[in-house]
C-alpha cells in the first residue's frame, strides 16, 4: 500500500509523503555517474535559491535567464544529422573496411572495378539506414512541434489569453481547466474549490492512474477565488529530478509560509474532477521534473553484432596475410623475371605497338611500386572476404522474424486487443541471451486491481465462507435496500458479519466491528466520485431509483479496495473536503471533522487520522503493517491478549496464501492528549527543517495504547500466468529482479504471490538511513551468508554463470536427460538455501556510490531474487546499469508506466506492457506486448529461435564468402601472383546477390531447431544462448578451418580431373562457379533443421537459377566465356567433378557432426531426438 499526501484540515497542512525520507536523502547525497545515468541533481542551497516573482515574468527572467518552455526529444537537427548519423553507423567496423576499399578503388592503378560502381554497395546501405533514422527522428520532431504549439490560458494584460506552450515563461500565471494537461511545473495559487483542493492524474509522470490531491495555500486560494490579483515572491530549489519532493517558501501579503510537494503540479499531469486551477510557473521546458527524468533514448546494437566486429577484425588480419603473400610473391616473381618482362607472352612493361607510345612503359612503376600496387589490388579482389551483404541480409532476416513474432497468435492479448509489437529491428537475437529481467510490479506483474478477501474482527475470521452467494433472496434484497450506493465492482461479503453490523446487538464485538469499518472508511486518502447510476433500472423496487454509482480514486489500490469493502458492508464514504469527510452508515449520514492525518511512511509503516465526531468525541484511527502495530497496542486484559493471538494467527494464515495484510486499531483521545498533539502537529507540519522526523514524533503522541479492532486481507490480482512465467524464466537460468515504487511489505507479498519468493529463501533486508548504516548492513550480510567480493567473483565468473540461481545448467558433454537429473539432484543438495535481497530506495541513495556499489553488486548477484522497493524512476535505471556496467550479461527491462522509461531505455532489451498507465513505456521500448506472461514465449521460443538463426546466419555468411575468396587466392598463386581471375565479373557480382543470398534469408527467417512446445516444456534449453552455443570464437575458427579445406578441394579437384585436357581457363572458371554455388547450398542444406516447401524452393531453386544465369551469360557472344557451359555440360567428367567436389569437401564436416552428436550430444540434439521419438 502506498499512502501519499492529503491535507484534511480547514487550513492547508504540508504533509510529507511516505517517501519523504528517501527523497530528502536523495537531495543531499552525492551521486555517482554511471555510463549512461547521471544521478546528480541541482540542489537547493541556502545561498542559491531560485526566485520566482508571481505574475512578473520580466523581472523573474531578466535576472536569471531561465529556460523557456520549449522541449526537444529528437536526436538530430538539419545541421547535425549527417555527421552524427554517419558517426553512429560507422561504429560497425565493416563499414570502415568497405569505405577504405571504395577509396582504394578510386586510384587509377588499382581500379579493379569501376570507380563509381565500387561506391554503390556502401552508399546504398548507408542511405537506407540514414533514411530510416531520419524518418524516426522526423516523427520525434513532429511530436515535439505538436507539443510545443499546444495552447494554455496565461494571465496577460489583466485577463487570461491563449498562449503557445513554448512561449510560456517562469513567473507567469497560468489557468488550466478540467481534463487539460499541465504545460509546466506550477505552484498552485487557487482552484475552483474554495478550500484550494484539486485532483490530478499523474499517469504520464509516475505511471499511476489513480487521482492524487494537491492544494493551494489558504492564503492565496481565498484571494484567487475572490478574483484578487496575486503578487508575491517564491523562493524554491533549483531544478532537479526528484518528483516526490518540492521545497520552497512564499512571501505573500507580508506573510511567509512554506510550500511542499502537495502545493505543486508537474508538467504532463492532467487535471481531473476540478473545474479549474490557477498556478505560477516555477520550472519550464527542459527544467521541468518530467523532462529531467526522461533519459535520452540510446542507440541499441545487438551484442552478437558487437562480437561480429571481433571476427571482422580477425578476417581483416587473415585478408591482409593473403594479400601480403600475393604481394611478396609478385615482387619475387618480378625480381626473378626482371630480364624477361618484355618477352614473356603474358606480361609487358612497355608498349610494343607502333605509334607515339612505342617504347613507353605500360603502367609499370618499378618492382617496389608494382609489389605495393599488387597488395592493394589483391585487397580489392578479396574484399568480399568481409561481406557487406551480411548486414543487408541480417536486416531482411530480422524484418522477417519480426513479422512472425507480430503475427504470433499466442502473444495476442484479447482483453486489451493489443498484439505484439516489434519497435526495434536491431536486437531480435538478443532475446535469446537474456540473463537478467528487471520488472516493474504494479500493472506489469499485477493487474493493479485489489480485491477484499478476508477480515479478522475482534478475534474472529470472516470472509472465507458464508459468502453472499449463500444468502437468501430476501436477505439480498434487504442488504441492497439499506444502501443507496452502487459500487463500480462487485464485492463478496460475509453474511454473518453483515448480520452482526445490521442488528442492534449489545457487546464489545459489535462495537469493534463498527469502529473497524469506520476506520476503513475514514483512515485513507481516497477520493469518492459520485454519479447517478444509469444502469440501475431493475424494476425490483422504487427505492432503486435513488441508487447512485460511486467510484473511488486514490493513490493506493489497497485503500480503494478497503474503502469499497467498507461501503459493501454499509459504511460508505461519499464526500471528502480538505477539512471533513461524510460517511453514510446504513442510510444515516455521519459528518466527521478531520483534525489531522499522518500518512504512511517507511519508518512508522502505518497511517493514522484524528477525527472529531458530531458529539465532540475525538478518536485516532490507525491502520498499518502488523510488525509496527502490535508494539503500540494497549495491554489491558486477558481478553485483549486472546484477541491479539487470534488476530496474529489469522494474519499468518492470510500471509501464507499471499494476501496483503493490515492491522486496524483505534482509541479515544482525551482533551489533554488532543491539545498537546494539535500544538505539536501545527509546528511540525509547517517546519522547514526535518519536517518528516518531527511529524513522526508528533504521530507517536497519539499512536500508542491502541485498542485492536482487527485485520484485513486483500488480494492483488496477478496477471494470468505470471507465476508460471517467472518459474519458467528461473528454470531457464534467468534472474528476475522486481523494481517497484511500492512499499516493502507490498513487494514482498506480491513476490510470494507470484512465486518469485519462496518459503525456503533466506531474506537479506537492507533498510539503511545513512551511508554508514548501509555499509554495515551490506558487510554484515556478506559475512553472514558467505558472499564473495566482486573481485573474487570475476575469477570464477564462468563457473558462477553455469550454476547461477541454484540451477545446474545443462552440460555440453551430457549424454542423456537422466544424467542431467542426477547431476541436478546432487547440485541442489550441495547448494545452501537460496538468498533473496530486499532493499529500499532510501538505502539505494547511499549505496549507488562507487565505494558501496561493488558491495551491493556482490550480494545482489549471489541472490536468486532481488526486490527493490520505493525506488525512483532514475534509481531503476541505476540498478540496471549496475549489472550492465559490471558484467557482460544481457539485461531486459519490462514495465508499463512512464516511471519505467529510464529503466527500459537503459537495459539491453526494453519491453513495454500495453497496460492502463499510458503509452510512455511502449513508446520507449524495443518490443511491446499486452501481458507479462507473453515474456515467457518471447524469450524461450522466439528469443531462442532468433539467436540460433542469426548466429548460424553470421557464421554461414563468413564461410560462404571466405570459400569463394580462398578459391580465388589459390588461383592467383598458380598464375604468377597476378590479380587476374578465371571467373567473369558478372559471376563475382551475382555470387552474393543472386546465387546464394535467397536460401540464407529464408533459412534465417523460417528454420526452427525445436518446436515451440518443446522449448516451453524444457526451459533449460534456453541456456544455449547463455553459453553462446550458436555463435562463439571457437565455432568461428572451426568454420574457417572447414572453409580452408573446402576451398582446397574446390580448386584442386577440377585441376586434377582436367590435368590431361586442353580445357580453357573460362571453362574452368565456369566449372568453379557452378561448383562453389552447389557446394555452399548443400552445406546449408546439411544444417537445415526444418524443411518446408519454401525452403526447398529457395535452396534447390538457387542452384537452378545459377545454371540459368550461366546459360544466359555464356550465350552472349561478346563475353570471353561464350558457349563454355554447353561444351562442359555434355561431358560426364564435368558432372563427376562436381559430385566429387561435394562429397570430398563435405565428408569431414559430416563425419564430425555424426561423431559429435553420438558421443557429445547437445541439449538441443537430445530434445530433437525426443521430438522425433514422440
UniProtKB/TrEMBL annotation:
EC identifiers of the protein: 7.6.2.1
GO biological process: phospholipid transport
Domain P-type ATPase N-terminal span(s) in chain numbering: 52-117
The family this protein is said to belong to: Belongs to the cation transport ATPase (P-type) (TC 3.A.3) family. Type IV subfamily.
Gene Ontology molecular functions: ATP binding; ATP hydrolysis activity; ATPase-coupled intramembrane lipid transporter activity; magnesium ion binding
Residues that bind Mg(2+): 440, 442, 896, 900
Any Gene Ontology CC annotation: membrane
Top EC class, one word: translocase
Entries under InterPro entries matching the protein: ATPase_P-typ_cyto_dom_N, ATPase_P-typ_P_site, ATPase_P-typ_TM_dom_sf, ATPase_P-typ_transduc_dom_A_sf, HAD-like_sf, HAD_sf, P-type_ATPase_IV, P-type_ATPase_N
Taxonomic source organism: Theobroma cacao (Cacao)
Pfam families with a match to the protein in the record: Cation_ATPase, PhoLip_ATPase_C, PhoLip_ATPase_N
Active-site residue numbers: 440
Protein name: Phospholipid-transporting ATPase
Subcellular location: Membrane
Amino acid at each position: 500500500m502506498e499512502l501519499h499526501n492529503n491535507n484534511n484540515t480547514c487550513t492547508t497542512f504540508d504533509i510529507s509523503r511516505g517517501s519523504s525520507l528517501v527523497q530528502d536523502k536523495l537531495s543531499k547525497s552525492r551521486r555517482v555517474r554511471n555510463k549512461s545515468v547521471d544521478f546528480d541533481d541541482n540542489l537547493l542551497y541556502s545561498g542559491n535559491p531560485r526566485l520566482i516573482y508571481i505574475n512578473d515574468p520580466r523581472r523573474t527572467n531578466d535576472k536569471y535567464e531561465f529556460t523557456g518552455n520549449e522541449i526537444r526529444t529528437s536526436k538530430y537537427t538539419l545541421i547535425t544529422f549527417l555527421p552524427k548519423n554517419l558517426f553512429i553507423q560507422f561504429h560497425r567496423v565493416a563499414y570502415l573496411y568497405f569505405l577504405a576499399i571504395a577509396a582504394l578503388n578510386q586510384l587509377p592503378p588499382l581500379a579493379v572495378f569501376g570507380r563509381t560502381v565500387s561506391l554503390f554497395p556502401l552508399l546504398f546501405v548507408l542511405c537506407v539506414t540514414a533514411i530510416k533514422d531520419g524518418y524516426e527522428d522526423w516523427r520525434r520532431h513532429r511530436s515535439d512541434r505538436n507539443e510545443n504549439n499546444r495552447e494554455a490560458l496565461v494571465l496577460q494584460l489583466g485577463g487570461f489569453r491563449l498562449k503557445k506552450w513554448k512561449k510560456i515563461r517562469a513567473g507567469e500565471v497560468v489557468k488550466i481547466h478540467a481534463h487539460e494537461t499541465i504545460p509546466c511545473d506550477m505552484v498552485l495559487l487557487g482552484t475552483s474549490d474554495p478550500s484550494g483542493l484539486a485532483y490530478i492524474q499523474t499517469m504520464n509522470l509516475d505511471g499511476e492512474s489513480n487521482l492524487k490531491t494537491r492544494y493551494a495555500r489558504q492564503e492565496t486560494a481565498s484571494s484567487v477565488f475572490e478574483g484578487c490579483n496575486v503578487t508575491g515572491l517564491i523562493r524554491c530549489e533549483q531544478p532537479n529530478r526528484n518528483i516526490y519532493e518540492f521545497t520552497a517558501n512564499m512571501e505573500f501579503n507580508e506573510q511567509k509560509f512554506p510550500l511542499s510537494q502537495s502545493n505543486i503540479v508537474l508538467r504532463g499531469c492532467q487535471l481531473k474532477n476540478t473545474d479549474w486551477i490557477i498556478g505560477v510557473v516555477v520550472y519550464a521546458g527542459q527544467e521541468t521534473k518530467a523532462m529531467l527524468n526522461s533519459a535520452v533514448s540510446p542507440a541499441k546494437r545487438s551484442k552478437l553484432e558487437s562480437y561480429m566486429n571481433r571476427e571482422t577484425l580477425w578476417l581483416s588480419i587473415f585478408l591482409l596475410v593473403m594479400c601480403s603473400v600475393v604481394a611478396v610473391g609478385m615482387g619475387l616473381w618480378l625480381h626473378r623475371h626482371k630480364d624477361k618482362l618484355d618477352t614473356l607472352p603474358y606480361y609487358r612493361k612497355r608498349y610494343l605497338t607502333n605509334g607515339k607510345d612505342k617504347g613507353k612503359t605500360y603502367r609499370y612503376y618499378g618492382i617496389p611500386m608494382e609489389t605495393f600496387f599488387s597488395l592493394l589490388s589483391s585487397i580489392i579482389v578479396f574484399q568480399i572476404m568481409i561481406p557487406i551483404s551480411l548486414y543487408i541480409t541480417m536486416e531482411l532476416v530480422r524484418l522477417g522474424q519480426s513479422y512472425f513474432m507480430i503475427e504470433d497468435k499466442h502473444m495476442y492479448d484479447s482483453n486489451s486487443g493489443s498484439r505484439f509489437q516489434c519497435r526495434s529491428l536491431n536486437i531480435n537475437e538478443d532475446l535469446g541471451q537474456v540473463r537478467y529481467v528487471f520488472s516493474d510490479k504494479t500493472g506489469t506483474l499485477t493487474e493493479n486491481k485489489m480485491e477484499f478477501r478476508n477480515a479478522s474482527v475482534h478475534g474472529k475470521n470472516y470472509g472465507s465462507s458464508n459468502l453472499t452467494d449463500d444468502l437468501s433472496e430476501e436477505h439480498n434484497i434487504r442488504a441492497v435496500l439499506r444502501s443507496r450506493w452502487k459500487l463500480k465492482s462487485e464485492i463478496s461479503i460475509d453474511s454473518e458479519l453483515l448480520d452482526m453490523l445490521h442488528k442492534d446487538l449489545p457487546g464489545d464485538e459489535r462495537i469493534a466491528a463498527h469502529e473497524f469499518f469506520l476506520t476503513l472508511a475514514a483512515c485513507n486518502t481516497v477520493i469518492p466520485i459520485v454519479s447517478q447510476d444509469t444502469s440501475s433500472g431493475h424494476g425490483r423496487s422504487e427505492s432503486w431509483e435513488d441508487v447512485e454509482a460511486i467510484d473511488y480514486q486514490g493513490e493506493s489500490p489497497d485503500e480503494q479496495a478497503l474503502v469499497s469493502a467498507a461501503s459493501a458492508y454499509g459504511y460508505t464514504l461519499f464526500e471528502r473536503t480538505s477539512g471533513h469527510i461524510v460517511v453514510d452508515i446504513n442510510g444515516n449520514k455521519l459528518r466527521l471533522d478531520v483534525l489531522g492525518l499522518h500518512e504512511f511512511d517507511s519508518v512508522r509503516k502505518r497511517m493514522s487520522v484524528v477525527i472529531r465526531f458530531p458529539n465532540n468525541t475525538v478518536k485516532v484511527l490507525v491502520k498499518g503493517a502488523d510488525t509496527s502495530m502490535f508494539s503500540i497496542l494497549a495491554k489491558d486484559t486477558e481478553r485483549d491478549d486472546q484477541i491479539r493471538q487470534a488476530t496474529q494467527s489469522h494474519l499468518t494464515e492470510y500471509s501464507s496464501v499471499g494476501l496483503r495484510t493490515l492491522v486496524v486499531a483505534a482509541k479515544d483521545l482525551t482533551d489533554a492528549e488532543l491539545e498537546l498533539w494539535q500544538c505539536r502537529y501545527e509546528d511540525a507540519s509547517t517546519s522547514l527543517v526535518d519536517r518528516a522526523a518531527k511529524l513522526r514524533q508528533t504521530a507517536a503522541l497519539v499512536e500508542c495504547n491502541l485498542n485492536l479492532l482487527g485485520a484485513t486481507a486483500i488480494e492483488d490480482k496477478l496477471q494470468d500466468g505470471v507465476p508460471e512465467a517467472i518459474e519458467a524464466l528461473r528454470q531457464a537460468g534467468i534472474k528476475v529482479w522486481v523494481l517497484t515504487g511500492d512499499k516493502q511489505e507490498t513487494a514482498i507479498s506480491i513476490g510470494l504471490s507470484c512465486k518469485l519468493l519462496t518459503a525456503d529463501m533466506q531474506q537479506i533486508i537492507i533498510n539503511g538511513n545513512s551511508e554508514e548504516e548501509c555499509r554495515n548492513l551490506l558487510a554484515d550480510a556478506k559475512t553472514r551468508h558467505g558472499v564473495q567480493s566482486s573481485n573474487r567473483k570475476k575469477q570464477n565468473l564462468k563457473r558462477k554463470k553455469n550454476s547461477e540461481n541454484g540451477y545446474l545448467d545443462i552440460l555440453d558433454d551430457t549424454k542423456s536427460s537422466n544424467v542431467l537429473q542426477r547431476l541436478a539432484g546432487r547440485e541442489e543438495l550441495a547448494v545452501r538455501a537460496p538468498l533473496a535481497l530486499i532493499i529500499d530506495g532510501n538505502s539505494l541513495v547511499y549505496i549507488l556510490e562507487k565505494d558501496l556499489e561493488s558491495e551491493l553488486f556482490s550480494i545482489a548477484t549471489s541472490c536468486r531474487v532481488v526486490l527493490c522497493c520505493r525506488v525512483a524512476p532514475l534509481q531503476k535505471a541505476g540498478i540496471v546499469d549496475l549489472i550492465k556496467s559490471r558484467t557482460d550479461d544481457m539485461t531486459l527491462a519490462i514495465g508499463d508506466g512512464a516511471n519505467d522509461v529510464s529503466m527500459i531505455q537503459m537495459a539491453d532489451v526494453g519491453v513495454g506492457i500495453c497496460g492502463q498507465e499510458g503509452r510512455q513505456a511502449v513508446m520507449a521500448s524495443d518490443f511491446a506486448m499486452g501481458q507479462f506472461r507473453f515474456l515467457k514465449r518471447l524469450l524461450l521460443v522466439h528469443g531462442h529461435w532468433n539467436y540460433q538463426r542469426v548466429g548460424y546466419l553470421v557464421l554461414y555468411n563468413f564461410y560462404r564468402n571466405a570459400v569463394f575468396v580462398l578459391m580465388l587466392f589459390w588461383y592467383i598463386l598458380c598464375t604468377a601472383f597476378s590479380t587476374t581471375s578465371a571467373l567473369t565479373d558478372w559471376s563475382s557480382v551475382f555470387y552474393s546477390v543472386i546465387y546464394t543470398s535467397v536460401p540464407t534469408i529464408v533459412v534465417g527467417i523460417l528454420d526452427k531447431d525445436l518446436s515451440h512446445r518443446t522449448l516451453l516444456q524444457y526451459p533449460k534449453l534456453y541456456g544455449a544462448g547463455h553459453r553462446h552455443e550458436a555463435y562463439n570464437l571457437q565455432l568461428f575458427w572451426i568454420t574457417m578451418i572447414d572453409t580452408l579445406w573446402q576451398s582446397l578441394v574446390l580448386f584442386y579437384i577440377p585441376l586434377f580431373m582436367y590435368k590431361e585436357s586442353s580445357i580453357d581457363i573460362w571453362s574452368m572458371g565456369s566449372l568453379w562457379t557452378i561448383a562453389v554455388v552447389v557446394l555452399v547450398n548443400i552445406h546449408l542444406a546439411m544444417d537445415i533443421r526444418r524443411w518446408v516447401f519454401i525452403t526447398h524452393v529457395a535452396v534447390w531453386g538457387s542452384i537452378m537459377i545459377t545454371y540459368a544465369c550461366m546459360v544466359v551469360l555464356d550465350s552472349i557472344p561478346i563475353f570471353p566465356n561464350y558457349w563454355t557451359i554447353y561444351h562442359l555440360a555434355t561431358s560426364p567428367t564435368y558432372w563427376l567433378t562436381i559430385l566429387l567436389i561435394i562429397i570430398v569437401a563435405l565428408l569431414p564436416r559430416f563425419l564430425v557432426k555424426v561423431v559429435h552428436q553420438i558421443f557429445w550430444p547437445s541439449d538441443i540434439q537430445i530434445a530433437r531426438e525426443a521430438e522425433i521419438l514422440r
